[in-house]
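# nightly structure sweep
# worker-07 picked up a monomer target from the shared queue
# config: single-sequence mode, recycle default, output format = C-alpha cells
# input follows
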Amino acid sequence: MTVVSLALILMAVILGAAAQLMLKAGANAVGTFPFDPGTLAAAAFKLAVEPRVLAGVALYAASLVAWILALSRVEVSIAYPMVALGYVITVLAAWWWLGESVTPLRLAGVALIVLGVVVVAKS
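# output follows
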C-alpha cells in the first residue's frame, strides 16, 4: 500500500469519526428527540438546521470523497477493515471532547480492534 493510499484511508476514517462527533454534539444541543407525532416535525426541523448536525453531514460527504479515492487505489478487502480505526478515534475523542466515560473493558475492546487492523494491514 502506498503512502497516498494510506493517507486517503486515514483521512476518510478521521473525517467519518469527526462526523459522528459533530452529529452527537448537535443531538446533545437539540436534546432528546421526541416520539410524539405532534412535536416530531418541529424537533426534526430543529435538528436539521442545527449547525453541528450540518457540519457532521458535510464531514460525512468529505469522508465519502476520500473513501472513494482510497478505494480506487486499494483493494476493498484491505481498505475496509481499516474503517474500524474510526471506533478507536471516536471512543477517544468522545472521552476527551464530549466527556463520555471510557471503561477498562471498552479500552480492551478498542485494543482488540487495533490488533485486528494491524493483522489485516500486514496481510
